[in-house]
Every structure is written in structure tokens, then in C-alpha cells.
Automatic annotation (TrEMBL):
<feature type="domain" description="DUF418">
    <location>
        <begin position="245"/>
        <end position="405"/>
    </location>
</feature>
<keyword id="KW-0812">Transmembrane</keyword>
<feature type="transmembrane region" description="Helical">
    <location>
        <begin position="121"/>
        <end position="137"/>
    </location>
</feature>
<feature type="transmembrane region" description="Helical">
    <location>
        <begin position="339"/>
        <end position="357"/>
    </location>
</feature>
<keyword id="KW-1133">Transmembrane helix</keyword>
<feature type="transmembrane region" description="Helical">
    <location>
        <begin position="290"/>
        <end position="319"/>
    </location>
</feature>
<keyword id="KW-0472">Membrane</keyword>
<feature type="transmembrane region" description="Helical">
    <location>
        <begin position="223"/>
        <end position="245"/>
    </location>
</feature>
<feature type="transmembrane region" description="Helical">
    <location>
        <begin position="369"/>
        <end position="388"/>
    </location>
</feature>
<feature type="transmembrane region" description="Helical">
    <location>
        <begin position="97"/>
        <end position="115"/>
    </location>
</feature>
<feature type="transmembrane region" description="Helical">
    <location>
        <begin position="265"/>
        <end position="284"/>
    </location>
</feature>
<feature type="transmembrane region" description="Helical">
    <location>
        <begin position="68"/>
        <end position="85"/>
    </location>
</feature>
<dbReference type="InterPro" id="IPR007349">
    <property type="entry name" value="DUF418"/>
</dbReference>
<feature type="transmembrane region" description="Helical">
    <location>
        <begin position="144"/>
        <end position="166"/>
    </location>
</feature>
<dbReference type="Pfam" id="PF04235">
    <property type="entry name" value="DUF418"/>
</dbReference>
<dbReference type="InterPro" id="IPR052529">
    <property type="entry name" value="Bact_Transport_Assoc"/>
</dbReference>
<feature type="transmembrane region" description="Helical">
    <location>
        <begin position="14"/>
        <end position="31"/>
    </location>
</feature>
Length: 419
């Protein structure tokens, strides 16, 4: 019979498994198409009905929310690891910071050698700050998260509101020639089908490994730092919310099903209508690049955060409802190996799409790329549980843990469970 602790960890693992699978719904565009296609369907990937339907579904339910769920669970897991370290008198600071240092090394290797969309270095740097707030109350963590997310939204929201206002006056009949010139210069920095970066991406990622590596180092070398500036406030806000939810008991059985259900309903009631309106606005604008970027970085964040919380509650409800099912067990196994599955996804997808592999970069439509997503999901579910039936950790989890502790950890499963 499963203990309460086992059930609690299974819920957290299954939620993490759903997150690592779900994030591929969004990352697949970055794996398979020029960078700007991630924001704008006009850039690449097709504007046929199936492509627009896929884009619309992602905008309505998943874009930003899967990344948010991943960060939410990172904060929850960090809280759990630090609590365990304190319980074992190992020193929360030493354990946590050594884990973050090792994670940063993996992140840099992943970014420069495999795929520059890496979030591991991003999480490692921001994760160091979590040590400072681990003793905060749930209310304090939530307040700090709200402040961070509000400031992030305000900063980017004002930036793009200003750009949208300038667009309105620079495209008016009485606009001066100088104003038009400035507007055209500004628009060259936004995603568009005529952007010179598209041809550059196609040439870079359709080459052999040396070509891809050279291109990444020449044009993407500063991405880890840029990501901290562009998304740092949002990511840290999610991490603090994850810590708060961990402390409050959402992932550990502390909430009864009625409370989880009420929380989910309220969050969806607040976020779904707003996200539907925002998504329709983007379509009605003709996929105006200023509107798309404003939504991506600023205006939609409050509602994306609330929907992310709704998604987390929904997953918890489903996992607890079907806790004995084989599929939940496999999703939980994928979650226990989330680090490995995240990195393996990058390795598999870049091999499929980049020139040193099958060379499909830019050749597959927005709707069709999801066939690769479903295949990768099947692979995660197929291999994670059999691996963990034989080994204590996933391969990369073992490497991360061994590097953080500066000694090889026991790998083959005997009669003990992973701590």
C-alpha cells in the first residue's frame, strides 16, 4: 500500500512529467523553424487553416504557460530539496548552491553545443536567489511573486504600448518623412517575413555540425544573458509561486480535491476569456509584429500566470483521480527523469531538423511538426519507466547529482529509493 509520502511525490513527479512533455508543444517551433517564427506565424511555417488553428490553440492554452509550469515546478522542487537537506543536516545552502552550479554548467553546454533555447542556465542563476527566501511564509512568497510579475509586465507593457502608439502616428496620412523613416527603422527590429535573420537562420542551421556551432557562437553567444534580462522577472516570479504552492501543500496532498477544483475553476474563469480576447486581437491585427511582441513579453502575462496555476491544479486533479492508472505511472516516471527527457528532446530534435541530421529545418509546416512532438512524447513514456525500474536515476539526473556532490552516485537500483 502506498504511503502518503509516496503519493505526494507521485503527484509532483506526474505534474513535472506533464510539464516536460508540454513544453515541447512550444519549443518544437524553435527546433524546426527560423527564430522569429516562434512569435509570428507570418514569418514561417504556413498560414493555411491547420497552421493557424495550431497557432491559435497554442496561444490560447500553452504559449508561456508550459514555460511557466516548468519554472513553477523548479521552484517547488528547489524548496523540497532544501527542506530535505536541512532535515538530513547536510546544509541547505551547500546542497542547493552546488546543484545550481552543476546545473549552470549543464545549461551552458546545452546552449552552446546542442540548442540555444536552453533554460537550465537561466534557472540555475535565478535559482540561487531562492536560497534567500526559503524561510518566507506562503503569503510573503506570493506577494513577492506578484510584485515581480507586475513590474515585469509593466516594463514590457509600456515599451510595446509606446511602440504601438508610435505606429499609429507614423502611419497616419500627415506623418512626416522623418517619422516614417524612424518607424521603418523600428520595424526592422520586429519579427517579419522580410527579416534578414530568416535567411541567416536557414543557412546556419541547415549546415553541418561545425557550421551550426560557428553560427551559434557568432550570432547566439549572448543568449543566456539576454534571456535573464528579457524573461528573468517572469521566471523568478513563477519560481516563487512554485515555492509557495509547495509550502501550501498543492503538490503534497495538503489540499483536498474540492479546494483544488475551486482553485482551478476560478483561475480558468479569470484567464480563459482574457486569453481568448488577446488571441483574437492578435489575429484581427493581421499578426501585427508589435501586437505579437507586446502580448508575448508583457500584456498577456497576468492572465498567462493565472492559467498556468489552473493547468497545475488540473494536472493535480487528474493525477489524484487516476493515480492507479498505467499512463499516470509513466507520466510520473517521465517527470522523475525530466532533466534527462528535456536534454534528450533537444538532442533528438536538433538531430532531426538540423543539417547534420535529417536536415528538415524550415521544411516542415507548423501543423505537421506536431507529429514529431507526439512521437517524442511516446518515446518519453516508453523508456522512462523501464529505465527507472532498473536504475535509481535518469542518466542526466545521475550526472547532475554526481557533479553536484563531486563523486559518482550509486546508479543501479537495489533495495533503496532515490533520496
Amino acid at each position: 500500500m502506498a504511503t502518503a509520502a509516496t503519493e505526494r511525490f507521485a503527484t509532483l513527479d506526474a505534474t513535472r512529467g506533464a510539464a516536460v512533455m508540454g513544453i515541447l508543444l512550444i519549443n518544437i517551433i524553435s527546433f524546426s523553424m527560423p527564430e522569429q517564427a516562434y512569435v509570428s506565424p507570418r514569418v514561417w511555417g504556413g498560414l493555411d487553416l491547420p497552421d493557424i488553428v495550431v497557432w491559435t490553440i497554442n496561444q490560447l492554452f500553452f504559449e508561456g504557460r508550459m514555460r511557466g509550469l516548468f519554472a513553477l515546478l523548479f521552484g517547488a522542487s528547489a524548496m523540497l530539496v532544501m527542506a530535505r537537506a536541512e532535515a538530513k543536516s547536510e546544509g541547505a545552502a551547500r546542497v542547493h548552491l552546488s546543484r545550481m552550479a552543476a546545473l549552470a554548467l549543464f545549461g551552458l553546454a546545452h546552449c552552446y553545443l546542442v540548442w540555444e533555447g536552453d533554460v537550465l542556465f537561466h534557472y540555475a542563476v535565478l535559482g540561487c536567489l531562492l536560497l534567500l527566501v526559503r524561510g518566507w511564509s506562503v503569503k510573503a512568497l506570493v506577494r513577492a511573486a506578484i510584485v515581480l510579475l507586475a513590474l515585469h509586465t509593466l516594463y514590457w507593457g509600456v515599451q510595446f504600448a509606446g511602440a504601438l502608439y508610435f505606429q499609429s502616428i507614423a502611419t497616419a496620412p500627415d506623418a512626416t518623412a522623418e517619422m516614417v523613416r524612424q518607424y521603418q527603422a523600428m520595424m526592422r527590429g520586429f519579427p517579419g517575413p522580410d527579416s534578414p535573420t530568416i535567411a541567416r537562420d536557414l543557412a546556419g542551421y541547415r549546415g553541418d555540425y561545425a557550421t551550426v556551432l560557428d553560427y551559434r557562437l557568432e550570432h547566439r553567444a549572448t543568449i543566456p544573458v539576454q534571456l535573464l534580462f528579457i524573461l528573468g522577472g517572469e521566471t523568478l516570479g513563477y519560481m516563487l509561486l512554485g515555492m509557495a504552492l509547495m509550502k501550501s501543500g498543492l503538490f503534497t496532498g495538503g489540499w483536498d480535491r474540492a479546494r483544488v477544483r475551486r482553485f482551478m475553476i476560478v483561475c480558468y474563469a479569470v484567464s480563459l476569456p482574457a486569453m481568448a480576447a488577446i488571441t483574437l486581437w492578435q489575429i484581427a491585427s493581421g499578426f501585427d509584429p508589435i501586437v505579437l511582441m507586446g502580448v508575448f513579453l508583457g500584456w498577456s502575462i497576468p492572465f498567462r500566470v493565472v492559467m498556468t496555476l489552473a493547468h497545475a491544479a488540473l494536472i493535480v486533479l487528474l493525477v489524484t483521480r487516476f493515480s492507479e492508472s498505467a499512463i499516470v505511472a509513466r507520466i510520473a516516471a517521465a517527470g522523475r527523469m525530466a532533466f534527462t527527457n528535456y536534454l534528450m528532446t533537444s538532442i533528438v530534435m536538433t538531430t532531426i531538423f538540423y543539417g547534420y541530421g535529417l536536415g528538415l529545418f524550415g521544411h516542415v509546416g507548423r501543423a505537421e511538426v506536431y507529429l514529431f512532438v507526439f512521437a517524442m512524447w511516446a518515446l518519453m513514456l516508453a523508456w522512462s519507466k523501464p529505465w527507472l525500474d532498473r536504475f535509481v536515476y535518469g542518466p542526466f539526473e545521475w550526472a547532475w547529482r554526481s557533479l553536484a556532490r563531486l563523486r559518482p552516485q550509486p546508479m543501479r537500483r537495489t533495495n533503496h529509493l532515490a533520496s
